[in-house]
Amino acid sequence: MRAGLTNIQWCAGCGDTLIIMAIKNVFKELEIESHNRVVVTWIWCSWKSSQYIDWYGAETLHWRWVPFATWIKMTNPELTVLAISGDWDWLWIGMWHFIHACRRNIDMTYLIFNNENYALTTWQASATTPIWAKTKTTPEGNKTAPFDVLVLAEASGCKFTKRATTDNFKQLKEIIKSAIEYKGFSVVDIAQACPSFKRW
Questions:
Q1: pLDDT digit of tens for each residue in the chain (200 aa)?
Q2: What angle do CA 175, 178, 183 make, to 5 degrees?
Q3: Structural domain boundaries enclosing 176
Q4: CATH number of the domain that 141 lies in?
Q5: Which pTM does this prediction carry?
Q6: Residue 169 lies in a domain
Q7: Is 71 inside a domain boundary?
Q8: Inside any domain, residue 164
Q9: Pairing of strands 124-125, 117-118
């Protein structure tokens, strides 16, 4: 699927749009042409990103975006492959694929759009929701400590892990750029704005 929509489907102020802008800038700086780049997503707010950049995109089955991205990279190693997910989807069934991708060190980049809640389904707690944060499913405050994405990645063998935020666009762009340039499996956990539901 070739992408490049212009109508915006996110809430006003959503950090997804800044992440997409950063990715576009990186592709331009690295001179990676559209036919040499692929993004693999599945559902939730982050999956829409595949529709807004001129590249080849695949919106895959639930929790199966990492195996699909792996297959693409192994089939054509010359492609620049990005796997994109939100903070919820990679931490359930998809976590096992994530852990093994870290172990195998396949040359692709994994971006986590981390808004710390299930925004698309309107404000439930996720596996990265801060402790004591109030959501629709934790009205008295979240009592479960959140996962640290990068600690899990490093423990699974990933050698490139970085944290970024949509509050610092220049740094975000540079981190994504370094992740794409890294020859191996790179993980970037992006703390993003979610003005509609992130209320902590």
A1: 445 455 667 788 888 889 999 999 999 999 999 999 998 887 666 666 667 778 788 878 766 778 899 999 999 999 999 999 887 666 666 788 889 999 999 999 999 999 998 877 788 888 899 999 999 999 999 999 998 999 999 999 999 999 999 999 999 999 999 999 999 999 999 999 888 888 88
A2: 140
A3: 37-191
A4: 3.40.50.970
A5: 0.89
A6: yes
A7: yes
A8: yes
A9: antiparallel
